[in-house]
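Worked example 2:
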Amino acid sequence: MPLVKDKIFTKKEIKTWNTVLSLQLETREFQIVDLFHTGLDTLKITPDKIPQLSDINMILEKNSGFKGVYVDGLENGKSFYTMLAKKIFPIGNFIRKPEQLSYIPEPDMIHDLYGHIPFLVDKEYAAFCQKFGEVACKFIDDDEKFHKFERFFWFTIEFGLIKTNNGPRIFGAGIASSIGECEFALSSKPEIIDFDINTIINQDFRIDQMQKKLFLLKDKHQLYNCFDELINSIDKS
């Protein structure tokens, strides 16, 4: 694996990281699925400092075979799923501005390194993501069908909810990394729809606003075991 060069963070970036993670620390136990907390603990991600990606990768690769790489700008779907199939996750190479603490449409280090990477510590979750990348890439030259895979990923891995014994919890990393999205997703404001593949792959989304429709998994295996039905649904569409 190529060495990831350590970054030097500014005082403003460190303060932003600390502010977001500290605010999340007060509420995330009651908002986000346990899978996320376990990943944070394993990777030793805390509000106190922004971790170096090289240190994160040493632990992540041992646990699930994934690694993170810094990228400039938003990866398009075709490059993103190609990376996912190779067990590589792109990390936005910047930290949001202080006025964007609650929400930011572009993926930064808080969204990617704090939001996504802890989930990828889990082998079963990581295996799903890697397989999803492989399957999506088979449809990469069919824009209409490929976009349905993008919708599915958006409403599950990015913005999914899941049932627990303690009520709905956040399963999507796009919600987990956002103070504003966490509060909004578990409020009475969004429309919560039971997980349904055909509905999801035909549901458009926007990245520049809070998600007004969210889908609720009954458990993680409903997602992990859905590939045959997902492919069949997209093939028929």
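Residues 14 and 49 are 7 Å apart (CA to CA). The chain has a mean pLDDT of 93.
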